[in-house]
Write a structure and sequence with these properties.
The protein is of the alpha/beta class. The chain contains 7 helices and 9 strands; from the N terminus they run βααβαββαβαββαββα.
């Protein structure tokens, strides 16, 4: 029997979503299926998915964003070989001076700034931990975040592990490109289209339906009419 190298994948969830999925029809994504298809000659041992639970003020113009994420996180929990790691999501108000204002408006204004905390630290920690314990032959990092430069360099050069990089934003990170990686892998829309979760996903006896806003345009209109 031919030995297939084991792969661990470390997904920066917000980076993947904002870089590749936000405006697409592929948000109902099965990450394990995706990387099984990309690394067909390898054995995907584990996908670690790093994200944070949104709060209501994350997007004031989209009040359903929190509910959609919770459905998706519940769907992810049904997937074998996938572990979800949650950081924190904070929404903080910062005061700014108005550049233009009406006479009746105050000079200063509060701007709510959403910030995701902890995912980069969690990803870095599990990456180094898994590499130190030799849990895979190849370590795949899905992110453009330059804050991961040091842990990736440590795994690639100090621990001597094979590292592949996946850049969700469609452009290379100059900092990460200098970390001693072996290969850059790109995600095609074809692979995304082939790697969606079923609709619905069964969580024990409870069906979890793909949010109507995440359906392709024709299906989205039908789902809204049925509500």
């Amino acid at each position: 029997m031919t030995y297939r190298m084991r792969v661990n994948v470390y997904v920066d969830g917000f980076n993947l979503y904002n870089g590749l999925l936000r405006e697409s029809d592929y948000r109902w994504l099965n990450p394990v299926e995706l990387f099984d298809r990309i690394f067909v000659d390898y054995e995907v041992n584990l996908v670690r998915f790093f994200t944070a639970v949104l709060k209501g003020k994350a997007s004031p113009g989209d009040p359903g964003i929190v509910a959609r994420q919770m459905v998706y996180l519940r769907a992810l929990a049904t997937i074998e070989r996938l572990q979800t790691h949650l950081g924190r999501f904070e929404v903080r108000a910062s005061r700014y001076r108005r550049r233009f204002r009406e006479p009746s408006e105050s000079e200063m204004v509060d701007v709510w700034r959403p910030e995701e905390k902890g995912s980069d630290v969690n990803l870095a920690t599990y990456l180094v931990r898994d590499a130190f314990l030799d849990t895979a032959d190849v370590y795949v990092i899905v992110s453009n975040d330059s804050d991961l430069e040091t842990p990736i360099r440590l795994v690639a050069t100090e621990l001597g592990k094979r590292v592949f990089l996946v850049f969700p934003h469609g452009r290379e990170s100059r900092d990460l490109m200098e970390c001693g990686h072996e290969r850059v892998v790109w995600i095609s829309t074809g692979r995304l289209a082939e790697s969606l979760l079923p609709n619905p996903v069964m969580a024990e006896t409870v069906p979890l339906f793909r949010p109507a806003e995440w359906l392709p345009n024709p299906d989205r209109r039908i789902a809204r009419q049925m509500k």
